[in-house]
Amino acid sequence: MDKSMKNKSLIKRSGNKIDRNNSRVITRPHIPSDMLRVSKIIGRVTNLTESKVEELLKDIIENFYGRHKNIKQQLYNHFEKVKEYLPENSSITDARKELIGAYFSMEYSIESAALFNPSIIKHPHQKGVQNGELRFIMSLRATGEGHISCIVFRSGIIKKDGSAIFDTTSEFVKTPDVLLDPTYDNHLFRLKLANMKSWDKTSSQIFEKLPDNFTYGKLKAGINDLYQNIDFDHNDQTIKNINWLANSNYKIKFDEHSKISERVIFPVSENESRGIEDARFVEFHEENGEPIYYATYTAYNNECILPHLLETKDFINFNIITLNGEAVQNKGMALFPRKINGKYVMLSRLDGENNHIMFSEHLHFWNESTIIQEPIMPWEFVQIGNCGSPLETSKGWLVLTHGVGAMRQYSIGAILLDLENPTQVIARLEEPLIIPNEKEREGYVPNVVYSCGSLIHNNILVIPYAMSDISSNIATVKVEKLIARMKVCS
Fold first, then answer.
1. Domain spans in the chain, listed from the N-terminal domain onward
2. What's the whole-number mean pLDDT along residues 240-254?
3. Using an 8 Å Cβ cutoff, are 463 and 14 in contact?
4. Is this prediction's pTM over 0.90?
5. What CATH code is assigned to 5-22+110-177+250-488?
6. CA dist 370 to 9, 301, 324, Å?
């Protein structure tokens, strides 16, 4: 039974359970760490007759054609990752290259473990939508073998009454192309190095010779030139940090003809090798009114977490950018959808316990935070945090929160922040809005409801939320009734 009796009448749960699909698979490189083994595998394939190569490749294509788009291209891409281990002066056919690629490939079921922690935003294209309806994009955290997380997408229509109709989910999924030689801004790169306390003689020597905008190749060449200078005492840690920063900031591009549900943002850099967690998307409006979509997320490499920012205008081209500063050292950051008094504003839970707010003149740098909310109700005694970016209403910034109480039960609550001074909490729910019911409490992590972002349509708050870290659902509540139920803070 739902114990949140006071607010039970407010919320309406839908029947739109968003569940995992084991058959949605991507191809991943599967390359042994022992390079001698790599050479041995390649040698075995190169010793095959051409007819045997064609026979084996035909079987592979027939077996996997229905599971992947452009499977031959994907096999070739994986061959490219090991071609340096071919015997010197080798000349081989395209078929043999693709077969070699197959031996260094594997399928990965991106949603086999869970599909949870959703975020929802307005779709950038609303053409053809009926009056009173809204097309949306939903992001979700998908988790597969080894608990590696990635970002997947769904799309659909929100009707006038707040109910959601999902577009058909494609059977195919594919990772994007990674820009191999991205361009970096010299000034911004210097600022990030300084923020990392890595601006010294070594970095100065490298960057003073680079143009205002430089490529990854130019950066590597500059580092190599420094190594060649035996008279210069370089700092190895600084060079390590330069490489780390370059590899953590990159661009990706999806096939523009692919469906949104076919696009998967899978870990690329070493810093996110163990997963991309809990993307909080927001439609941000620049001061000129132009919309751009941002998402904060947590990169994890099995040792530490690293805050990142996704940036896109079309959900085809994405920039991946590191966030820097003392105030972005934990999870759960949520950007406000516009500047306030000329500054970017973001929520966080820097200390893992309280709700913080941050202001910055530069989107990439966050150095100070202020606590705006501490746990005071029993259902949030352990910790509180945000459940996505604030939503602007005439009464204030509406923020969904998560609270952790006894038996590590997660609940979703709400607060209202002042529009012009969002450091001030002006009202809050005393009881949770959503608490796990009997159908929602069983899963990978029991007794958890959690969201990474909601939207308002026709004065209805549409809340996608995860159920016990395994699947997701949607709930709705009328905004005016929700705010009316809040207690004004003194």
1. 5-22+110-177+250-488, 25-109, 183-248
2. 91
3. no
4. yes
5. 2.115.10.20
6. 34, 28, 17
